[in-house]
């Protein structure tokens, strides 16, 4: 007698979760990683091109803040919509399309004839960028073996963060010679990655199983995994949803965790995007030359990459809650000290430590947490809304900083803003984070929703 669809699905999930990390896993992961890195690069062009845009279009601080914020308005829309679209139509095609969208509008920005046109193209570009984030991380979380999920999702966030110092480094070489428009020309390269994704990436097995396409899922698992698990995971009873549901995110079981996650994302977005958008300009006002300000920014933001890589190991050992809480709080306290000095060595050291703990340890852990917290039927929706709230922080903070700087306040106020929001995020993490360490994504859902879990389940080291 052939196995039931439910038994077959459970067996496939066991093979996915307990498989070795194969060459096929690596090929898929590197492809997604490249797209995610380029997403980070394009987003973080703002701080690199902003000084040139200000001079070209004779902008005030308030107008410059609008240019910084409009990208995040588009990203907010893209992140919120893409998660639901991906939960309904799959991961592969939406992921490739999002990358092509932001590449096409990069080309449009090269030829922007006015500040209004540039703002419009940057906002439309933001829709693709925000959508990419909402789809890429759930895709990774759903196909990698469970014990590798935390390290590989945080490593993807590290690749995204590498986009910031890379943008600063490339800007140092390109902008003085060819101007700020050349940076947008470089940002058209991702269209090639999108085409490769359409041609080579498989669909998410968990998405296929949720839609009842067991045969298609089996074919992918057969090419992806070398081994099988020793036992099937407990049956996962998920509501029969056909698309991502925001109601799941704010339902009774998830509400506490969702509110805390969204609040942390707002704070994390304000820290990351506010700092990357304005730090070169603030350093320049402190007397640091333009090229040196790009160099300092590259060094400082590179520390965030190191933190993100280390986070993948820490969250498997001490858990998500501790890394989030400690990372945010330490970052906030360092920002307060950072704002009291103008010495070059101290600026670089304190800035590097603040981004190491804030954008690196805490920021990357936050996305790993968001990509695993919700059930498969709403996973991309959950990550999309989390990313959207991060963009709220990115939307508000650059404009707020522009307003504050226009009031001719001391530079300390700039760093005070970042310190306060980081400490508040850390407190939220310590109070209302569900610990996901040592669980498969199905087991996380079972424990939050109260579904009985079989005593014989195999615990994955995730």
TrEMBL record:
Main location: membrane
Domain of life, per lineage: Bacteria
Pfam families: MFS_1
Keyword Hydrolase: no
Topological category with respect to the lipid bilayer: Multi-pass membrane protein
Record keywords: Membrane, Transmembrane, Transmembrane helix, Transport
Cellular compartments annotated: Cell membrane
Bilayer-crossing regions: 28-54, 66-86, 93-115, 121-140, 152-174, 180-201, 254-274, 294-315, 322-340, 346-370, 382-406, 412-434
Domain Major facilitator superfamily (MFS) profile: 28-437
PANTHER family: SYNAPTIC VESICLE GLYCOPROTEIN 2
Protein known as: MFS transporter
């Amino acid at each position: 007698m052939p196995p039931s669809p439910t038994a077959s699905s459970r067996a496939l999930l066991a093979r996915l979760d307990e498989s070795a990390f194969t060459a096929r896993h690596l090929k898929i992961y590197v492809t997604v990683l490249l797209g995610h890195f380029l997403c980070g690069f394009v987003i973080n062009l703002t701080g690199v091109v902003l000084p040139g845009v200000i001079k070209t279009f004779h902008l005030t601080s308030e107008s410059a803040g609008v240019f910084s914020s409009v990208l995040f308005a588009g990203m907010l829309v893209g992140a919120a919509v893409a998660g639901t679209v991906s939960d309904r139509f799959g991961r592969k095609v939406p992921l490739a399309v999002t990358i092509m969208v932001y590449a096409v509008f990069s080309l449009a920005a090269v030829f922007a004839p006015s500040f209004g046109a540039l703002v419009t193209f940057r906002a439309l570009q933001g829709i693709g960028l925000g959508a990419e984030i909402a789809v890429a991380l759930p895709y990774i979380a759903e196909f990698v073996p469970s014990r590798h999920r935390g390290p590989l999702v945080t490593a993807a966030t590290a690749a995204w963060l590498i986009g910031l110092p890379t943008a600063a480094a490339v800007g140092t070489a390109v902008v003085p010679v060819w101007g700020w428009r050349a940076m947008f020309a470089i940002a058209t390269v991702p269209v090639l990655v999108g085409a490769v994704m359409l041609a080579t990436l498989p669909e998410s097995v968990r998405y296929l199983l949720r839609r009842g396409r067991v045969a298609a899922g089996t074919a992918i698992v057969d090419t992806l995994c070398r081994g099988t698990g020793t036992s099937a995971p407990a049956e996962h009873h998920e509501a029969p949803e056909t698309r991502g549901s925001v109601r799941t995110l704010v339902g009774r079981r998830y509400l506490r965790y969702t509110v805390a996650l969204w609040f942390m994302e707002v704070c994390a977005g304000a820290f990351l995007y506010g700092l990357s958008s304005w730090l070169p300009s603030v350093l320049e006002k402190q007397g640091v030359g333009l090229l040196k300000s790009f160099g300092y920014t590259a060094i400082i933001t590179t520390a965030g990459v190191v933190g993100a890589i280390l986070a993948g190991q820490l969250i498997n050992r001490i858990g998500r809650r501790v890394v989030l809480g400690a990372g945010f709080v330490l970052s906030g306290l360092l920002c307060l000290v950072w704002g009291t000095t103008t010495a070059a060595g101290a600026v670089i050291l304190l800035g590097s430590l603040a981004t190491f703990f804030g954008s690196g340890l805490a920021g990357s852990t936050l996305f790993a947490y968001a990509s695993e917290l919700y059930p498969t039927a709403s996973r991309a929706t959950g990550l999309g809304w989390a990313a959207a709230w991060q963009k709220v922080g990115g939307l508000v903070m650059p404009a707020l900083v522009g307003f504050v700087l226009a009031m001719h306040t001391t530079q300390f106020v700039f760093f005070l803003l970042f310190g306060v929001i980081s400490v508040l995020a850390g407190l939220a993490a310590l109070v209302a984070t569900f610990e996901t360490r040592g669980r498969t994504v199905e087991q996380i859902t079972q424990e939050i929703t109260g579904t009985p879990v079989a005593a014989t389940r195999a615990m994955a080291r995730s």
